[in-house]
Amino acid sequence: MSDPLETRLKSIKHILVVLSGKGGVGKSSVSVSLALGLQAQGLRVGIMDVDLCGPSLPRMLRLEGQSIHQSAQGWSPVQTKETVSASSATHPLGCMSIAFLLGSKKDSVVWRGPKKNAMIKQFFQDVAWGPLDYLVIDTPPGTSDEHLSLVEYLRLAPDVQSVIVTTPQAVALSDVRKEVDFCRKTNLAIAGVVENMSGYVCPHCTHCSNVFSTGGGESLATEYGLPFLGRVPLDPSYTATLDGKGSESTGSLLQDFVASPLKPVFEGIVGKIVEGSKTSEGDAE
Amino acid sequence: MPEATVPDNAPEHCPGTESEEAGKADACAGCPNAQICATAPKGPDPDLPVIQKRLELVKRKVLVLSGKGGVGKSTFTTQLAHAFAADPIKQVGVVDVDVCGPSIPRMLSVTEERLHASASGWQPVYASDNLACVSVGLMLEEEGDAVIWRGPKKNGIIKQFLRDVDWGDEGLDILLVDTPPGTSDEHLAVVSSLKLAGIDGAILVTTPQEVSIQDVRRELDFCRKVGIKVLGLVENMSGFSCPNCHKASDIFPPTTGGAKALASEYSVPFLGSVPLDPRLAHCCDRGQSFVEEWPGTPAALGLGKVSQGK
Q: Which residues of B touch A108 (CB under 8 A)?
């Protein structure tokens, strides 16, 4: 006589909630990259999109136009088929997004809070993820309905941590302060801060310009005593990879990711997160 | 009763939620919402005529929308406001309805100021003589405080911004409304509050890559659904000119033709593109007008073109 929500959550070892006060700082890109980084390590990973009004994950994961299937256990997440190579045992990446439930990519979801909350609850209750090592959750910007619902539903989950994404300029940082405040108020553990779009290397002269200035994320992390997970530079080829039309695209997202110059950066970030989860696991035992 | 007040899933012969009969008609017996309909206030929202009266002297009301976050809605709103306010006889107002992530105070460099109440209503904060703004950021005790509100509370504050702010005796030449990303509570609140006062149109901001364009498609769909005229599309962050070698490159490549292609697909006007320029971000962090600080740069020309086109 256990709660269906609790049963579902028990099969997920770690949950990473990717947050940012400001929009367009790369939450979805970072979410996808984290998921790919974890997947490349041979872990079982799922990724969930709770940005109901602007779902971007299907496009980034090259899963556009797919739809959710019903099974005896519930909704089956849409899975990427690829693995790095035949020799290494990687598991497919499962993805859940509202875009899979929409008829056309042009449809807008004009919903007020309560309807969004119900949808998020269904994502947790009805999706048959199977056993997962990590579930990465991509959120919309801000600190409102979706975030409150998430925190509420995730109270039963074994391990929930947030990853805060920011760009280096002052406007983004002031929104991120709000997000840190939100995590404190709702008792959500913070795995660390990722500084995205930090510097751009000109493809013509390799001069690195700080499009949105630099270093802000790290100083913020120090200010609040949070781990600084890493700095991700702007890379148009990576943007193109996630936009689905990379010039040297081989068709497989995971292969493109492994070949990307940003892979070591994300490897470092993923390494720190996995390390962090291990110590928290140790504490629990 | 107009059909608009009858919910899609209502029982047959539903009298409509705004009807005098709501919750009491024969058809309501057994409807799970009967209780709510019977006790909810009847008739159209009494605040709407008040808002209409308050905004009577506002010549144009323009929304700045974008499906995706961080494409530069607030940057564009403030720079457009600066561009209009460059003409000293024009009165410009900015309403920031991004309740959870207000950026306008920082970009207009008024983070230390606070809104004040007076007999005639709330006094907006003036960034310059003819440029006023209101924002939730101007009501917080600490800049870092999170505003953790669900929809109804956000709707309340947005309505107050539109109903209670005293924009001055002369009114405004233009009122710009900066919105959060998406198509949710805040957007519906603005649209429904301004039902009688009227909205002149919306400017949609996007960046060139498909992930952003895709969200703007949803925003166009939203505008169509709620009946807002689209004044045009602006492509922000289109290309980057390296400050070292002055050659252009695409940080966010327009993999599917960018905003121009989208504009022609939906036959809405394309207002122009603004290239990415680190100095623009600096100006916004310090509350300066980019067009005044760096006249003649490609980004300033882009901004000027867009504001004139309006």
A: 67, 183, 218-219, 221-222, 225
